[in-house]
Amino acid sequence: MNTVPPQPRFTVFVHLTALPAWLALTRPERQQIIADHVQPLLEKHDAVQVRWFDAEAWAAAPSDVLVATTDDLTAWSDLFEGLRDSPLWSVPYFRVELVLPTVEDGFADYERRTGQRD
């Protein structure tokens, strides 16, 4: 029986710093920007699951961490391009500090594909 090994799962950590332009907005204004510009992107690129974490209460940089999980790196790239065109990056409201792509259990996938098990 020929089974196809599972495709690797990618998680991308994006470190962001909220800029004064974002912080000067009221909370309803921020929510409106997310509703108008970010939510449609997330719906369009539903192969990518996105979570947002606040870090500013514990660290100066980054103030926020976006965590995106997907099996489809093209979908991730398309979502990121859309975010670059959105006010979050273009005004800018946030500065991207670091983009850290990772592979979940990459060592296990490598061992499974190469037979490198003890």
How would you describe this structure to a colleague?
With about 120 residues, this protein is an alpha+beta fold. The protein has helices spanning about 20-25, 25-45, 75-85, 85-90, 105-115, and strands at about 10-20, 50-55, 65-70, 95-105. It has a four-stranded antiparallel sheet. The longest helix has 18 residues, at about 25-45. The model has no long low-confidence stretch (mean pLDDT about 90).
What is this entry, summarized?
With 118 residues, this protein is an alpha+beta fold.
List the helices and strands and how they pair.
Blueprint: E1 10-18, H1 20-23, H2 27-44, E2 48-54, E3 64-70, H3 73-85, H4 87-90, E4 94-103, H5 106-114
Antiparallel strand pairs: 1-3, 1-4, 2-3
